[in-house]
């Protein structure tokens, strides 16, 4: 995450016509609003474009545009950037385009305000009272094959290739459709096949010539839940804090928090929590730099896209080994890649930032537990992005009832309790949880 001052300095230096901000994970969303307010404070007059996987038109209209009195436009995909930029820079088109966008964003804000009133949440207390019943009848939590952490320094890349989920690869190249059907698609099939061929050739080199190193750290720790939203690791003196759904549920459906999937202390059972960090980004920067030095953007994007696919495949493959041998609670599991992609296995591996655990700051706890910076060379930035970028981190839960869910929006009562648990001020907690707050917070000036 590039600091606002640095972005604005570069914009001044290059005398730019437009500034564009890109955001992959939610901490960027807050930073973008800050950049907009800095542009306002410094009296900039150029347009601001917003894009990236975690951004949206609603967020741009509601949270970013109000901070800057000049045009702020969300651009859904890069291919539309040229049209938008042309309109914004054209004397003939600019006024109409800006007026149209402003009207559209105002409508988005009005619609959202109306929707907000419908999105009634229950109190934190009521949500807690509606937590799921997780059964331990006749079940002893399975002990893992080792306790503490284990490092995989040079995991064989060959093992990762069959676990690649190719559909997101085509998304990276803006080709819509799922693999393998996309290869035969009447519209994008030919482009997809060419891309696929190039990808296979490069992947082959990555594996054979060891362009990248795959490293991981896995840990298993004795754990119990406190019966609320925290998972306590008594031997490490650490608590992992999770967040509970607060939406109103019908049909007897429960309000989940990840902590529900670990046996509570009063059950008297010894339960476990698993954790991991994987990366396939070691060696990537050098390859990217070499391609960029020869202006080979295509190969540079290709190698990054493949490293990302391998990172995801590594998380998948490691989870498989965890289920079958390292934790070993499903030693007889035999699933093909499609079944794995569809998550037809026992247990889950939610990652901080994904819908079941939206708080990115829990990565700090995870990294400390695994000593991940030292053990695998993955670093957390101030905004909790991981570097190298081709990295995935998360927790393992073994219970057969453990499932993925979205926390959704939460109320102030839970944020207050959470801030206290984490030893954060309310303003800090609200900043990290901004995308999931069901109320408008007062932004500190
Ligand atoms: C690929 C991917 C990864 C890869 C690669 C990440 C990387 N190195 O960039 C891997 C597997 C490593 C990964 C890891 C993680 N990911 Co991820 N990942 C994705 C995924 C599937 C696709 C993102 C992507 O690259 N798309 C392709 C590119 C080309 O599209 P794009 O970014 O949207 O950009 C396009 C447009 O938006 C536009 N654009 C982008 N920027 C700009 C800027 C301007 C000015 C303009 C005009 C246009 C523009 O142009 C692009 C081309 O059209 C998304 C889900 C999704 N479907 O979007 C999740 C997603 C981004 N990941 C997510 C998360 C949480 C993570 C992790 C934190 C999980 C974890 N704990 O391990 C890590 C973080 C990694 C890190 N380094 O910190 C979340 C983020 C949400 C959040 N709450 O923060 C997402 C949205 C998934 C989700 N639904 O929860 N991830």
SS elements, strand count: 11
Radius of gyration: 23 Å
How far apart lie the N and C ends? 21 Å
Name the average pLDDT.
94
| Number of structurally distinct domains | 2
Number of helices: 15
Bound molecules: cobalamin
Instruction: Please give the CATH class of the largest domain.
Output: Alpha Beta
The percent range for helix content is 25-40%
Unreliable spans are none
**Percentage of residues in strands:** 5-15%
Relevant CATH superfamily of the largest domain: Vitamin B12-dependent methionine synthase, activation domain
The SSE string, one letter per element, is: HEHEHEHHHEHHEEEEHHHHHEEEHH
Global shape: globular
Biggest sheet layout: 6 strands, antiparallel
Please give the CATH architecture of the largest domain: Roll
CATH topology of the largest domain: Cobalamin-dependent Methionine Synthase, domain 1
- Tell me the structural class: alpha+beta
Keywords for this entry:
about 450 residues; alpha+beta; Rossmann fold; Cobalamin-dependent Methionine Synthase, domain 1; six-stranded antiparallel sheet; three-stranded parallel sheet; globular
Task: Provide structural commentary.
This protein folds into two domains: 4-118, Cobalamin-binding domain (Rossmann fold); 124-155 and 214-281 and 309-408, Vitamin B12-dependent methionine synthase, activation domain (Cobalamin-dependent Methionine Synthase, domain 1). The chain is an alpha+beta fold and 445 residues long. It is globular and about 75 Å long. Strand 1 (19-22), helix 2 and strand 2 (48-51) form a beta-alpha-beta unit. Helix content is 40%, strand content 13%. It binds cobalamin.
């Amino acid at each position: 995450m590039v600091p606002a001052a640095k972005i604005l300095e570069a914009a001044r230096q290059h005398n730019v016509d437009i500034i564009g901000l890109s955001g992959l994970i939610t901490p960027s969303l807050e930073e973008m609003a800050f950049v907009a307010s800095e542009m306002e404070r410094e009296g900039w007059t150029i347009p601001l474009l917003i894009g990236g996987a975690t951004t949206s038109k609603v967020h741009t209209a509601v949270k970013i545009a109000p901070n800057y009195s000049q045009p702020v436009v969300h651009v859904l995909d890069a291919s539309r950037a040229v049209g938008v930029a042309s309109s914004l820079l054209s004397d003939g088109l600019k006024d109409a385009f800006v007026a149209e966008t402003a009207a559209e964003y105002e409508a988005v804000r009005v619609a959202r305000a109306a929707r907000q009133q419908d999105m009634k949440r229950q109190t934190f207390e009521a949500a807690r009272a509606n937590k799921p019943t997780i059964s331990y009848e006749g079940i002893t939590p399975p002990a893992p094959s080792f306790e503490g952490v284990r490092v995989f320094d040079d995991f064989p890349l060959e093992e990762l290739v069959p676990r690649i989920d190719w559909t997101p690869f085509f998304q990276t190249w803006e080709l819509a459709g799922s693999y393998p059907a996309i290869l035969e698609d009447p519209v994008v099939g030919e482009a997809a096949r060419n891309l696929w061929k190039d990808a296979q050739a490069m992947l082959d080199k990555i594996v054979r010539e060891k362009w990248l190193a795959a490293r991981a750290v896995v840990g298993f720790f004795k754990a119990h839940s406190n019966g609320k939203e925290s998972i306590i690791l008594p031997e490490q003196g650490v608590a992992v804090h999770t967040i509970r759904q607060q939406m109103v549920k019908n049909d007897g459906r429960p309000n989940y928090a990840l902590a529900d999937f670990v046996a509570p202390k009063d059950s008297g059972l010894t339960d476990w929590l698993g954790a991991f960090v994987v990366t396939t980004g070691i060696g990537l920067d050098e390859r990217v730099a070499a391609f960029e030095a020869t202006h080979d953007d295509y190969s540079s994007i290709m190698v990054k896209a493949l490293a990302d696919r391998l990172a995801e495949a590594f998380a998948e493959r490691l989870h498989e080994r965890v289920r079958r041998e390292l934790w070993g609670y499903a030693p007889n599991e035999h699933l093909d890649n499609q079944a794995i992609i569809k998550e037809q296995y026992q247990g889950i591996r939610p990652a901080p930032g994904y819908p079941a655990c939206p708080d990115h700051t829990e990565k700090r706890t995870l990294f400390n537990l695994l000593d991940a910076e030292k053990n695998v060379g993955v670093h957390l930035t101030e905004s909790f992005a991981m570097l190298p970028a081709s990295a995935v981190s998360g927790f393992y839960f073994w219970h057969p009832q453990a499932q993925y869910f979205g926390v959704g929006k939460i109320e102030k009562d839970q944020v207050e309790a959470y801030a206290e648990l984490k030893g954060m001020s309310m303003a800090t907690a609200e900043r990290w949880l901004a995308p999931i707050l069901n109320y408008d917070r007062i932004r500190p000036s």
